[in-house]
Amino acid sequence: MRKACVAAKSAGNTLGFVPTMGALHEGHISLVRAAKKQCDVVAVSIFVNPAQFGPNEDLAKYPRRLEEDSKMLLAEGVDLLFTPSSEEMYPAGATTFVDVDGMSERLCGKSRPGHFRGVATVVNKLFNIIQPDVAFFGQKDAAQCAVIKRMVRDLDMTVKIKVCPVVREPDGLAMSSRNAYLSPLERNNALVLSRALQEIQRHYQNGEHESAKLINEARKTFATQPAVQLEYVEVVDAESLDPLQTADPGALVAIAARVGGTRLIDNILLN
Ligand code: PAJ
Questions:
Q1: Which end of the chain is least crowded, N or C, by CB within 10 Å?
Q2: CA–CA separation, 251 vs 235, rounded Å?
């Protein structure tokens, strides 16, 4: 992979990179298309990164569809696909990690200790292997974007980070590889996440800027759907992930909730 990337760049091409864990959907493909548009050569990685899963999480059952994924990427004109094994990425004795202190404990980091450490470490490793000019991430994982941007800034990495909008199903559900776990009933119940966010946006636009009150509106929406357990709803600064008492334009509202055994996240930027 390193050789192929060096060869691609030595011809004077710009190299775009889209890191993924596979089970690709339109959300991932939107990143690939943005990369194709902006860069001469596009590399994608598919690696279900054990370091970002907690001990009781879905690492073993995470959907793996390498053949289907490869076909989709080929059809999109992706030039390079990197699918390392866990042993290649984490040889015995690998003990170096990237901690983005202060941010790693925010939002999902609170209930998924070590998650952002695993993300930052693997993304740093992938950047070192691929050395992209631009890397593409989805706003769907807003906290991840903030953590990666901070890492790039703090460690003087030269890669540019491009964040692309959340891709949704026609009824509003944010696309996610984990939606595959949902039964038809759960799939319908899961709409409460995007509905609660739309409600918050509406109240914000009607002049309610106090975070506690906006959060309360979301809690009310969740109360109408007892089959879904709200894990958190927070109003934070999109860059630092610090909680905001008063929401300003561009503030990030992030939600995590459990639908049956499936943990889903979604967010919006207030405007
Ligand atoms: P994964 O969940 O496969 O997502 C790969 C990229 O696709 C991420 O940048 C994510 O934000 C983006 N994405 C997922 N669903 C999206 C949607 N509905 N709309 C727009 N973008 C979407 O995120 C990861 O993998 C991993 O943490 C990774 C960065 C690969 C590190 O292991």
A1: C
A2: 7
pLDDT tens digits, one per residue of 237-269: 999 999 999 999 999 999 999 999 999 999 999
Distance (Å, whole) CA 195 – CA 46: 31
Residue 15 to residue 2: CA distance in whole angstroms: 12
Pocket test for ligand 1, best of 17, 18, 20 (most atoms within 8 A of CB): 20
Nearest CA to 100 out of 79, 119, 80 is that of 119
CB 133, CB 10: distance < 8 Å: no
Atom number in ligand 1 closest to CA 175: 18
Using DSSP's 3-state secondary structure scheme, residue 227 falls into: coil
CA-wise closest residue to 269 among 246, 223, 235: 235
28 is catalytic: yes
Tens digit of each residue's pLDDT (9 = 90 or more) over 212-235: 999 999 999 999 999 999 999 999
Amino acid at the residue 229:
Q
Q: What is the largest CA-CA distance in the chain?
A: 57
Residue 189 near residue 228 (C-beta atoms within 8 A): yes
Give the start-to-end residue ranges of the domains of the chain.
2-164, 177-269
H or E element, residue 228: strand 228-236
CATH architecture observed for domain 2-164: 3-Layer(aba) Sandwich (3.40)
More confident residue, 111 or 164: 164
CA of 17 to the centre of ligand 1 (A): 12
| CATH class of residue range 177-269 | alpha beta
Q: What's the rounded Cα separation, in Å, for the pair 95 and 101? A: 17
